[in-house]
Amino acid sequence: MLKSRLSAKMKSEYQDAKQLPNSILSQQANANPSKPSQNAEDTRILVGQKRKAPSSIPSSLTESYIDDLQGTGYQTHNTTSAFDQQISEQNGVIALRRPDEENKTNTTSQSLLSSALVKKKDAANRIAKPTFHPQWKLSRVISGHLGWVRCIAVEPNNKWFATGAGDRMIKIWDLASGELKLSLTGHISTVRGLAVSSRHPYMFSCGEDKMVKCWDLETNKVIRQYHGHLSGVYCLALHPTLDVLITAGRDAVARVWDMRTKAQIHVLSGHKGTIASIICQESDPQVITGSMDATVRLWDLAAGKSISTLTHHKKSVRALTSHPQQFSFASGSSGGRNIKTWRCPEGTLMNNMTHESIVNTLSVNPDGVLFSGGDDGSMKFFDYDSGVPFQSSLDIPQPGSLDSEAGIFCSSFDQTGTRLLTGGADKTIKMYKETA
C-alpha cells in the first residue's frame, strides 16, 4: 500500500517535467545552445534536470502517510510521525528509514565504544610479571680496613677488586679467595670513589682531600693527578669508549677531563647541591648525575650542557646505577617510593620502588636483580623490570670494634653478576651469592 501511494505521488509530481512546451523548444533551438535559457518561469525545468525538493511537506500528506503506515511494523513517536521519520530532501526524493536500521547503527557504535573501553582497561591492568630470582646468602666477610668502606670497584677481567675507606687506604683483594693482595697509600682523607679502566692498565681514585689520582697498575704508583675541584670529590666515572674521566663532588659541578693530558674539557654546572653519584655511558645521555638537591640531570657530553632535569625525587639522590643490558638506569634517595627506574634517552619514568631507609647504594646485574643498600643496614633485592621486591634482610655488623655499626655505603656485582660485594660501616666487605 505504501509503495503504491509513493509511486503515484512521484508520478504526479514529475508528470509535467517529461516534455517541454513546443514554444519553448523552438526558442531553445534558435538560441545559442551553450547559453542556458533564462526566460520565464516555464523554463525553470529543463530536460534531464531534477525538480528541487519542496522546503516542507504538507501536513495533510504526512498525516495520510501516517494513516497508511499504521500496522506495517513501524514504531510511532509522539504525534508527528508513525515511525522515527527521517526525511532526506536530496534529489527531491523522500527517504524513510526503518527503526531496525537505526537500532543496528546504534548497536554498532555501542559495541565499538565498549571494545575501546575494554582495551583501555586491559592496558591499565597490564602489569609486568616478576621474574623468579633465587635468594641471596652471605658467603664471606672480608676484614682489613680501619675505617668505613666507602667505595668498591671490580676490575674488568673479574680477578680482583679494589676498595677505598675512611682509613685513607686503597686495598686490592683477590675476588676468588678474598685475600689481600696490595695496599695503596697516597690520599690524605677518606677515599670516596674508585674506577678501573677497561681500555688501559689504570685505576682512578678520588677523595675528600679534593684529589683525583690515576694509578698505573703495572707499577702501582700515581702517574697523574687532576686538579680543579674546590671541595671533596665524592664520585667518578670513566667513559667506556673514550679517554674521558668525569668527577663530581661537594662543589656541585661535574668536571670532564682528558684522561691523558689532564686537561679539563667541560664543567657541567647546574646542580644546587653536592653531586653524590655519576654514570657515564656510550650513548646519549652520556653523563647522568644525581645530587643532594633532589634532582637527576642528563647531560650532553659533546656540548657540555644539561639535556633535561628529572625532579621526581623528593629528597637527596645518593645512588645511581645503569642496567648492563638495557638502555635504562635506576636512582635512589630517601623517603617513600624512593627508588625509580628510568628509560633512556629521554629519562622516562618506568617504575617506582620503596626501600624504607636512606638509599646509599644501588647495583644491578645482567639477570635483572636490583640491589639496594640502606643507611641503617637494611638490604632489599628487586626484580628490575617489574619493580617487585623478592628479598629483604639486614646487614649484621661484625664485632671487634667500638665504632662497629650497621650501614651499607657501597656495592657492586662482579662481572658475571653471580657475586655481590658490599662495603659498610662495620669496616668490612661482605660477599653474597645466589643460593642453589
Task: Give structural notes.
The chain is mainly beta and 436 residues long. The protein folds into two domains: 2-101, no CATH class; 136-434, Methylamine Dehydrogenase, Chain H (7 Propeller), CATH 2.130.10.10. It is 14% helix and 37% strand. A hairpin with a 5-residue loop joins β12 and β13. Residues 34-66 and 68-97 have low confidence and may be disordered.
In short:
This protein is mostly beta strands and 436 residues long.
- The helix content, as a percent range, equals 10-25%
Overall mean pLDDT stands at: 81
Low-confidence stretches: 34-66, 68-97
Strand order of the largest sheet: 1-28-27-26
Domain tally: 2
Could you give the topology of this structure?
Blueprint: H1 2-13, H2 22-30, H3 59-69, H4 99-125, E1 136-143, E2 149-154, E3 160-165, E4 170-174, E5 180-184, E6 191-196, E7 202-207, E8 212-216, E9 221-225, E10 233-238, E11 244-249, E12 253-258, E13 264-269, E14 275-280, E15 287-291, E16 296-300, E17 305-310, E18 319-322, E19 328-332, E20 339-343, E21 348-353, E22 359-364, E23 369-374, E24 378-383, E25 389-394, E26 408-413, E27 419-424, E28 428-434
Antiparallel strand pairs: 1-28, 2-3, 3-4, 4-5, 6-7, 7-8, 8-9, 10-11, 11-12, 12-13, 14-15, 15-16, 16-17, 18-19, 19-20, 20-21, 22-23, 23-24, 24-25, 26-27, 27-28
Q: Descriptors for this entry?
A:
single chain, about 425 residues, mainly beta, Methylamine Dehydrogenase, Chain H, 2 domains, four-stranded antiparallel sheet, 28 strands, about 15% helix
